[in-house]
Design brief:
269 residues; alpha+beta; 4-stranded antiparallel sheet; 7 helices; binds 2-acetamido-2-deoxy-beta-D-glucopyranose; Mini antigen; signal
Length: 269
């Protein structure tokens, strides 16, 4: 009986992927090498903290509007912290979408200028790819133009994505014609064998490379990771705590869904 239980425990351990759902908060990072991306290292007190966004450092409308919390003020031609959709009037109606994900164009006046207002995107209102693609009707959907129609695609999970082009941005399109999350086994090089996104983008599965067989598979633990690769090989879901690779307790924001939508800003400009 005991042996059986042990066997069951071992089997379930070996098939369970090592999933991490909390990205490190800047403040739990203790070595400067891991303090990057949205974090900044202070050598004065050897601490890592979140970078503060200074909107005034962005001097063009596209770079300004691409930053989540900033928006371009057409009156002053300056970048400042986003306030409210209705505060903005733009020369091209489409620019309202760039101010914030909650903004849509209002009615264009006789002067050709368009006041923005709070509202949500309706994919079907767009009639070409440039206007349609990557607009975001909600935090887990994007618009996509195909067969002359702008449709709303659910991007809350790889497995819900019905369009191949949208799928392959972050997930894989299977031979069965469906979208699915990558697995560690899909990674064919040691470099690519680090993490794969979970199906619902809520975290990552940690992978491990076997150099003897040149195969990537689900990691059982992170004991092989070092101060030099713990953070990077876990996509920032673990950090080097001084003596071991430790799981982050940080925020469990749906980082990658946001990335999916944020991406968009990048592709648009
Ligand atoms: C743009 O700048 C003007 C002048 O400073 C200010 O009155 C206005 O409120 C600003 N608009 C927004 C949306 O911040």
């Amino acid at each position: 009986m005991k042996t059986q239980l042990l066997l069951i425990a071992m089997i379930s351990l070996s098939v369970n992927a090592l999933t991490a759902t909390n990205e490190c908060d800047c403040t739990e990072i203790v070595q400067s090498a891991d303090c990057k991306g949205g974090c900044t290292w202070s050598s004065a007190d050897s601490s890592c903290s979140a970078k503060t966004v200074d909107c005034t450092t962005y001097t063009t409308q596209p770079t300004c509007d691409a930053v989540n919390t900033c928006a371009w003020n057409d009156t002053t031609s300056k970048c400042a912290t986003f306030t409210a959709c209705a505060d903005y009037t733009v020369t091209a109606a489409d620019q309202c979408y760039d101010k914030d994900s909650t903004c849509v164009p209002g009615t264009t006046g006789t002067d050709g200028k368009t006041p923005c207002k709070t509202g949500s995107v309706t994919c079907s209102s767009f009639s070409n790819a440039a206007d349609c693609n990557f607009k975001s009707p909600s935090s887990n959907a994007v618009c996509w133009f195909k067969a002359n129609t702008c449709s709303q695609i659910d991007v809350s999970k790889c497995s819900t994505i019905t369009d191949q082009d949208v799928c392959t941005i972050l997930c894989k399109w299977t031979s069965a014609g469906a979208c699915a999350a990558y697995t560690c086994a899909d990674m064919t090089t040691a470099e690519a064998c680090d993490t794969v996104l979970t199906d619902d983008f809520s975290g990552v599965n940690i992978c491990s490379w076997d150099s003897a067989t040149s195969k990537c598979s689900d990691a059982a633990d992170v004991s092989a990771l070092t101060s030099a690769n713990c953070f990077d090989k876990t996509a920032g879901y673990y950090y080097w705590d001084g003596s071991a690779c430790s799981e982050c307790s940080g925020s469990s924001s749906n980082g990658y869904i946001l990335a999916f939508i944020g991406f968009i800003a990048m592709l648009m400009f």
